[in-house]
Amino acid sequence: MPEIISVPRTKTKLKTERPRLHKVILVNDDYTPRDFVVTVLKGEFHMSEDQAYRVMITAHRRGVCVVAVFTRDVAETKATRATEAGKANGYPLQFTTEPEE
User: Fold this and answer.
1) Which of 20, 16, 10, 14 is nearest to 73 (CA)?
2) Using CA atoms, how far apart are residues 27 and 67, in angstroms rounded to an integer?
3) Which domain holds residue 51?
């Protein structure tokens, strides 16, 4: 009779990773009016007047400012829509995204 070899069965646990988050970053420029930047921040990112003003001023002083953190798809969509709002009004307003560390 042939010898039966038993192989231990391993149980694999599936770990679902959280989606990697991405930062939406406002890039300062010297042409887009401050009021317009505040309006875009309020409209696209649902900020209060005060929050939007603080983000705009931070970007103005430091060159860039993190606006919000979302999943990749949401971050890219919001950054694109906010940048397009600037283009549609003739401004070089720019929002970018990058992975959060």
Assistant:
1) 20
2) 10
3) 21-99
Global pTM reads 0.82
Residues 6+ apart with CB under 8 A from 28: 59, 60, 62, 63, 64, 65
Q: Confirm whether 5 is domain-assigned.
A: no
Mean pLDDT per 10-residue interval, the chain, length 101 residues: 67 75 97 97 98 98 97 97 98 97 84
pLDDT of amino acid 16: 76
| Domain containing residue 94: CATH number | 3.30.1390.10
pLDDT attached to residue 8? 67
Cα–Cα distance, 65 to 58 (Å, whole number): 6
In a domain, 49, yes or no: yes
Q: How many domains does the chain have?
A: 1
Q: At what angle do helices 49-62 and 34-45 cross, to 10 degrees?
A: 120
